[in-house]
Write a structure and sequence with these properties.
The chain is an alpha/beta fold. It has eight helices and eight strands; from the N terminus they run βαβαβαβαββαβαβαα. Bound molecules: D-xylitol-5-phosphate and zinc ion. The site of D-xylitol-5-phosphate (DX5) has 21 residues, from strand 2, strand 8 and helix 7.
């Protein structure tokens, strides 16, 4: 898949979907205009919550043709790159805060044929990205502390998005910026103006049906020059 760094892409997060009807929920956001399906993978160690793993993802693969984006909130991502790629995931992001060798993990993801993303928690500075920009296909900025849906957007994220956009422009690397946490129609204007392009939204979409209506409002609110 190719990710246009300047296109607005909406990625509903299944974390807020009805877990007893995941396939239906995926089909509904697909029909409603979603671009990517965001999968929050939690291990109960890196974050204080547990979700689902490769076998569930493999089963969900038949529910849509949209790209699957796995956001790994797990302590040992290297061990799970291959299983998630085999399950049909197209994009995999790993946290900068994970112990290990990030550059090697990103290479593993690309060798598997998926897009490689790096995630930054709210307290993490963008400086750690500077020397690995060539290894990254997208950057995920967390606007809440990971682990749960429905949390409030952390306002300092706006300055961070602006700083990151500037760093990427100066480096001549137009890497798409994904944003995750407390995102919805009400702040889409502000976050897109600051540089966010792939918007992850869980509770804003699944908590406010009809889904197509929320996504339409997000597209209308986006400011992309
Ligand atoms: C949080 C997850 C998010 C979560 C966002 O750890 O990474 O993807 O689902 O949920 P909302 O959009 O409700 O803040
Ligand atoms: Zn996420």
């Amino acid at each position: 898949m190719h990710i246009d760094p300047n296109a607005l892409l909406i990625a509903p997060s299944l974390l807020s979907a009805d877990f007893s009807r995941l396939c239906e929920e995926i089909a509904r956001v697909d029909r409603g205009g979603a671009d990517i399906i965001h999968l929050d993978i939690m291990d109960g160690h890196f974050v204080p919550n547990i979700t689902f793993g490769p076998p569930v993802v493999a089963k969900l693969r038949s529910c849509t043709d949209l790209p699957f984006d796995a956001h790994l909130m797990i302590e040992n991502p290297d061990q799970f790159i291959r299983p998630f790629i085999d399950a049909g995931v197209d994009m995999i992001s790993v946290h900068l805060e994970t112990r290990g060798h990030l550059q090697r993990t990103l290479a593993l993801i690309r060798e598997g044929g998926a897009k490689a993303g790096v995630v930054l928690n709210p307290a993490t500075t963008i400086e750690g990205l500077r020397y690995i920009l060539d290894d990254i296909d997208y950057i995920l900025i967390m606007s809440v502390n990971p682990g749960f849906g429905g949390q409030a957007f952390i306002p300092s994220t706006i300055g961070k998005l602006q700083d990151l956009s500037k760093m990427l422009t100066e480096a001549g690397r137009p890497i798409p910026i994904q944003l995750d946490g407390g995102v919805g129609p009400d702040n889409t204007g502000e976050v897109t103006r600051a540089g966010a392009r792939i918007l992850v939204a869980g509770s804003a979409i699944f908590g406010n049906p009809p889904y197509e209506e929320v996504m339409r409002r997000m597209r209308e609110a986006a400011v992309i020059e």
